[in-house]
Amino acid sequence: MDGNGRWGIQNKGSRNLGHRAGLDTIESIIEETIKQKISYLTLYTFSTENWKRPQKEISYLFSLLENFLLTKIEKLQKNKIRLKIIGNKKKLSTRLKKLLIESEKKTSLNSKLQINLALNYGSKEELLNAIKNINKKKQIINAKNIDKNLYTKDIPNPDILIRTGNTKRLSNFLLWQIAYTEIFFEKKLWPDFKKNDYKKIINNFKNIKRNFGAI
């Protein structure tokens, strides 16, 4: 969901207001995801590299997330949406960790849509942790066991990856899981990404013949 900060500077004179506008896009995309009968939606919310940002911006981002969990959890519950956190929770505040655990527990039985929040997430760290867990369990290091020890162990690999913000890189996101994912780079900044843009990508995806390495 790239481009919030740039959008904020361009339109509101503030990176933080761009992050606030990005929340509206999230709600819109969630609505369309349900309409499209898509079962899983993963949102890259905060990466392990994002800690390098100014502390004021980091604090604002986490306050937005806390507010979202406090005010929108009932709506998620009503719409039968399950919330799952992927990433390292250890570095997060006690208050936020508690909210995340409560939100996951409260929505755990919902099955219409699973939203995976990639929070303090980094794919390289995820892979290193998986290998450490495999060694700890004295398992063989192979693809099957790596899959079983990732944050995404019970989540299907994504069919589509969308990156907004006119940047063509993966930025340490689901590097293992996207081996056969169709990738779409979108020029629009995240707050400008609308339902029709999303639908266009989904329709384009439906027309792709996926061979998964075969002829």
The major pleated sheet works out as:
3 strands, parallel
Q: Mean pLDDT, nearest integer? A: 96
Low-confidence stretches: none
Strand content: 5-15%
**N→C terminal distance:** 33 Å
Shape: globular
Number of strands: 5
Number of helices: 7
Rg, please? 18 Å
Question: What is the N-to-C order of secondary-structure elements (H for helix, E for strand)?
Answer: HHEHEHEHHEEH
Structural class comes to alpha/beta
Strand order of the largest sheet: 1-3-2
Task: Give the helix proportion (percent range).
Answer: 40-55%
List key phrases describing it.
215 residues
Can you lay out the helices and strands and say which pair or pack?
Elements: H1 4-12, H2 15-35, E1 40-47, H3 55-78, E2 81-86, H4 94-106, E3 113-121, H5 123-136, H6 143-148, E4 160-163, E5 182-185, H7 195-206
Parallel strand pairs: 1-3, 2-3, 4-5
Helix pairs in contact: 1-2, 2-3, 3-4
Notes on the structure:
The protein has 215 residues and is of the alpha/beta class. The chain is globular. The strands form 2 sheets. Strands 1-3-2 form a 3-stranded parallel sheet. A two-stranded parallel sheet has the order 4-5. The protein has 7 helices and 5 strands, in the order ααβαβαβααββα. 46% of the residues lie in helices and 14% in strands.
Quick synopsis:
The chain is an alpha/beta fold and 215 residues long.
